[in-house]
Please model this.
Amino acid sequence: MPKTKILQEGQSYTFRSYFEMPYEADQILAEFGYTLVRSRLVLPKSEQRLEQLPELKQRLEDTLLLIGLSSEAARREALVFPVLLEVARFCQCQIRIEYPLSVNNWLKGNLDYFLRREHSLLVVEAKNDDLSRGFTQLAVELIALAQAEEQEVLYGAVTIGNAWNFGTLDAKQCKITQDITLYRVPDDLEQLTQILVGIIDQ
Model:
């Protein structure tokens, strides 16, 4: 019995479309010829420590106490952007917000956050409350970016603000790996920023 196609020829899909689909991530990624693996990733990690880390941690703790985080916009502005801005400032790298990317009718849309420096790239997708479907969207964004940038290995993260989940894309093996570890904010902030800096600095 032939496998039912999820993506239809002649149809147009944005990155957000994949977040809204009822299918599992491995089914959607198979449409692009990619396999999904879940394992404990060994991510790049910087030994350098952000000088502003204690202040940033305190700000994020205050945010969690004072601000309602019922919307994606609130989480992005209050929890995600402050972390990425600190990392971008430390690494002296570009940070682009709502970065438009269009490869074809199945791979197009905006990347929430796109950090780049020379040959290092990092995509961050911010969601309101669904890390699982958020990772599916992130994975498709990495596939699009791999085609646009012709990079062999790409790093990405999906976050709901107080939790982060990383993934990698291996273009040669057509494989996306989802880390089984979650990094909590503010408790794991030091580990999280060491990884973000490590990805940009490598």
